[in-house]
Amino acid sequence: MDYVILGKNIRKFRLLRGLLQTDLAEACDCSNSHIGQIENARGIPSLEMTVKIANALSVTVDQLLLENYESPEKLYLKEIAERIDKYPVKQRIRACESLMTYLDSLEKFGQ
To answer: In terms of pTM, does the model score above 0.70?
Structure first.
């Protein structure tokens, strides 16, 4: 396992989520210095900690371990689905219809 890639990916997804190291540490029940060490490849997380970090960042473990994830859009699709699920039914339908309209225009006008 490449711990430099792991650390970079943890940092990347943490920043994408707008989290500080202290936020991630709290979610994983560890110290922020431990998260910092992992992100800088100076600390090696246990498998359990790696899974906790992945869960806290709403990503898969393979997204943390791989240098080039083949389907990065899956992260966004999962996040969109989670956000839409929180809405009442009428708003969920409206959000889906809006997304479909946007996709139709992408297909029609080619990006």
So the answer is: no
